[in-house]
Amino acid sequence: MKEEISLEELRELPGESYTIIDIRDSYAFELGHIDGAVNIPAEGLDESDLPQDKQLVICCRSGIISEDAAERLRERGMNAVNLEGGYVRWLGEKIRLESSASKAEEIERSIRKKFHRTIFSKFTKAITEYELVKPGDKIAVCISGGKDSMLMAKLFQELERHRKFQFGLVFLVMDPGYSSENRAIIEGNARLMNIPVTFFETDIFNSVYNVKNNPCYLCARMRRGHLYSKAKELGCNKIALGHHFDDVIETILMGMLYGGQVETMMPKLHSANFEGMQIIRPMYYVREAEIKHWAAYNGLSFIQCACRFTDTCTTCNPNGETRSKRQEVKQLISQIAKDNPQIEMNIFRSVENVNLNKIVSYKSNGVVHSFLDGYDD
Predict the structure, then answer these.
(1) pLDDT tens digit string along 226-258?
(2) Of 60, 71, 191, 236, which one has the greatest count of Cβ atoms within 10 A?
(3) Is the dihedral of CA 100, 102, 106, 112 positive or negative?
(4) At what angle do helices 180-192 and 86-98 cross, to 10 degrees?
(5) Which fold has domain 18-94?
């Protein structure tokens, strides 16, 4: 019995003869999937009622986890094959075939028209209210390859078209050791969306590969440092990150639940280690649901995470020990918001409406202040 099938072989099969089963988690599937695929997360595959009269094409992110899943199904007597290269390879092919000047124009037009109120206006609102972009700035727009940072790049291009003052942009992509497939997808999407990216390479993935405790934290710290260094080398004074409204409220709740502290992801920050450099977050008011809507409307697909570890980790095994606290908080907020849609905005406003007279203690510039200070006065 055949164990693996390529995309080329799959295209030659009659559509009614097979079913593509994507075993990634539902969040990854929602961000993008092969046309016609059915989502059955890996942990539920063995208990699912699968069609007996069709060939089952099992797909994961890169064809690694799905290889074992297909083998288990074959042991049960089912006609199951692994999709060679998985979703990432299919996505690379899709982007290559769709690239054209007219496609980039359609994407830009959607920002100016359909998504002007829900995305572009909120982007410019954050820039104005928090004074994120000023005359003479040169901004490194940091692109990871996901939906958030790619949209941010297009929004900055649109802002540049209508700019009221002079500022500069560099669309910066750091390659910390991506697989060739992931690198190709980022490059392909940049061409598709007409974003003139500047790549630079580092060896971060190899550096943290054998780190047992908090490799993701160390990787993030190292990536941030490399971005600052490269941006400064290119003459930039700010780096723009694609964190959105949902990231902000999730961070607030994560700090309370897991860190025992009240703090937020700030719209802009001075760098502690790179003098004269700042982080800005111009997507601060943009909702993730609208970003997904924009991507789906334009038929765009992005990698969920280009980290090498996700080939055998969280993308295909969301309920294992590696499941992120952020995903847990995201699901918690979503569940509560079903009964009270104001929950998300209330979380956001909670760090705008801090009443220091009703706080037991707070920290400012490293100094702890207690309500007892001057209480009897």
Answers:
(1) 999 999 999 999 999 999 999 999 999 999 999
(2) 60
(3) positive
(4) 30
(5) Oxidized Rhodanese; domain 1 (3.40.250)
